Amino acid sequence: MSESLFDVAALHVGYPRLPDVIRGLDLSLPRGGFTAVVGPNGCGKSTLLLTLARLLRPASGQVSLHRRPLTSYPARDLARTLAFLPQQPLAPDGIRVRDLVMRGRQPYRRFLLPATAVDHAAVDAALAATGTKDLADIELSGLSGGQRQRVWIAMTLAQDTDVVLLDEPTSFLDIAHQVDVLEAGAALARSGRSVVAVLHDLGLAARYADHLVVMKSGRRMASGAPHDVVNEDLVHEVFGLRCRVVADPETGTPLVVPRRRAGTCEPDQTVPTSTDERTAHACT
User: Fold this and answer.
1) pTM of structure
2) DSSP β-ladder status, 211-216 and 219-224
3) ABC transporter domain spans which residues (predicted)?
């Protein structure tokens, strides 16, 4: 195991009306590379990420970042160490792309002083890295969902931190834009940063992540390299899904293929051509 990034001990986190989202969690996330946190809806993935970002205070337990208690970081120091992109970030009406990305430089700027050459260089680099340089003067509201997500990631890059937390960065995106976002996350990891992302698609998580954390009901069910973690028994236990796990033909990483559920159509060599024939072939 490489040097740890986060160490979580006996963590208990929740909300006023839902106090037991995470219960007694022990976890270590490796420094460097791409870690994906996966699990069924409501299992505590986003709650964990909010806690790692120090946006939720644990009821008990401790979180350490770089072997140092997370609570010991002054706010500005933490903002220069860790960047967090939430599920549904909000932006002011009418803001242009470059101005939004410049907000990532806030931890380094002095109040009311103009942006420095270093700030502008960081923004330019972030726009270039996410393929959004040509969008710099366009209002955020005029972009597609995939473009907006790349701009938000650019703002996160401009923050220039060693640690990047992404909460469901591929939600509401089509498959092409999901791949674009995950490629950007993998590129970040290759550049030497530590990326931790909450993801829903287990196959894509296994393809792009170096390390997986699988959660269920606020607990860690498994963690490690995708090849060591993803198997048919685990998928059934965690997701309630019978499946086959095969090698991804592109990457060799684990790929989950769901098995047919009872009552679904069986393969048929004949191809119905008329309306009546299609009706006869329909599942009942």
Assistant:
1) 0.87
2) antiparallel
3) 3-242
